[in-house]
Amino acid sequence: MNNFLKILHFELINVLKSKWIIFYGLSFFFITEAIFRLGGSGSKAIVSLLNLSLILIPIISIIFGTIYVYNSREFIELLLTQPIKRSQVYFGLYLGLTFPLSISYLIGIMIPFLIHGIAEPIVLTSLLLSGIFNTFIFTGIAIVIALKFDDKSIGIGVALLFWFFFSIIYDGLVMMLIWQFGDYPLEIPLILSSILNPLDLGRVMVMLKFDLAALMGYTGAIFEKFFGETIGIVISLIMMSIWVIFPFFYGLKIFKTKNF
Amino acid sequence: MIEVKNLFKSFGKNLVLNNINIKIDQSKITIIAGPNSSGKTTLIKSILGLVNIDKGDIFVNEENNRNSTIYREKIGYMPQIGRYPDNQSIRDVLDMIKDLRGIKQIDKEDELISIFGLEEHITKKMSTLSGGTRQKVSAVLALMFEPDILILDEPTTGLDPVSASKIKEIIIEEKNKGKTVIIISHIMSEVEELADKLIFLLDGEIKFQNTVIKILEQTNEKSLEKAIAKLISLNKL
């Protein structure tokens, strides 16, 4: 077996044994189950889940990822003293974190849907896809942060700041833009603003699958008007992929030259 | 044998290793000593490839360590702090490192586990083990593949006196088998007991390197501690 697969196997088992991951999956399970029991139908349940996923996935991925890398530092050092390439250790670490987080999320959400029945399979698929994308994006950012800052407390602070920026400050900045420049055509700046925020992209990706413009929010509606459903989804998929790829390769570059 | 030639390393503006030239011979115990922040750990991490050097070359058994990772098969490394994944047992970690090196069974493993009294802890989670027990795991990992080169960063720190004495016995045995041994140590009695050669680092530079006997002769002192103090003060003049 390739060394990368061996490390991935070990990391997977290690992360899956963590109580955090189990708690994370159970949270999604109970939240989804509660939404169903409180009378949410298929599409309503998905909208509620989307809003919760957009808060929970980034914060858990970025904080769990950052802490995990800091706690693994001495073990990473030990791995790097073995006859293995640095890139193999990095791939193992990255996928060892992103796989369990994604699987935990998928299982947590899918079980209640399988029990209660899937009314909107395409919308559900886009919700799950958007969640997985955000898991990869924020875990990638977490690894970059933990590699960039040697001080754990600073790293966790920066991770929280990233989450706070994309989840809260960013929307505030967009609102300010709309308020300040309301007299000008703002379609293109607003589309650019949603492309530059992975959480907006995640929301747009799911909302484009609904025929409810009112639920899409301002940027979502503009997105649909500007691109139409299919191109909108393709663009959001491409942008989400870029958001995955950039932190991944940037992290790899740091990892390859880092002084441990 | 390990040869370090014209090695320079800085972290930002801070020059940590300044033109280091050393030869570490086979069948000898070489101890690297020096005050905190003198560059000892950076030097051994450079040899291991954990630190990317700015200038210079490091040859491990005549192979330049920039060119490959295979040379690390010949090295057993015991870090200063042994920290392992919290959710894994000692067994899991040992098996994983064996798996990475493509080795299924090694006789030395059980022997070392028994020497360090790790049998009763072997299936316990790492998070439940004390620092000293984790340090013993590091010792087993460094020694179990019977490598040609041993690099040990303060190996007795955190170990109980019995285990510390056992590891010193093993180090001497390994040296007698023809292994190259490098140890970082602050403990002067340990240096006197083990060292064939002493390399003393200060502010990233080698202040002196010689056999312990020659250092004592040169300074006309009976204790190594006083001899080192004398050499440092002579160097400052």
Notes on the structure:
The complex is a heterodimer of chains A (260) and B (237). With 260 residues, chain A is mostly helical. Chain A has one domain. Chain A is 84% helix and 0% strand. The model of chain A has no long low-confidence stretch (mean pLDDT 88). Chain B is of the alpha/beta class and 237 residues long. Chain B has a single domain, classed as Rossmann fold (3-Layer(aba) Sandwich). Helices cover 36% and strands 26% of the residues of chain B. Chain B contains eight helices and ten strands. In chain B, the strands form two sheets. A six-stranded mixed β-sheet of chain B has the order 6-7-8-3-9-10, sandwiched between helices. Chain B is globular, with a radius of gyration of 18 Å. The relative contact order of chain B is 0.17. The chains are: A mainly alpha (260), B alpha/beta (237). Chains A and B meet through α1 and α4 of A and α2 of B.
Total of helices of chain A:
11
The major β-sheet of chain B equals: 6 strands, mixed
Please give the share of residues in helix of chain B: 25-40%
Helix-strand topology string of chain A: HHHHHHHHHHH
Overall residue-averaged pLDDT value of chain A: 88
Unreliable stretches of chain A, pLDDT < 50, 5 or more residues? none
Our estimate of the beta-strand percent of chain B is 25-35%
Oligomer: heterodimer
What is the radius of gyration of chain A? 19 Å
- Per CATH, the architecture of chain B is 3-Layer(aba) Sandwich
Q: Using the CA coordinates, give the radius of gyration of chain B.
A: 18 Å
User: What is the strand arrangement across the widest sheet of chain B?
Assistant: 6-7-8-3-9-10
Largest contact between chains? A-B, 27 and 30 residues
CATH superfamily of chain B: P-loop containing nucleotide triphosphate hydrolases
Number of domains of chain A: 1
Helix and strand composition category of chain A: mainly alpha
Distance between the termini of chain B: 34 Å
**CATH topology of chain B, anyone?**
Rossmann fold
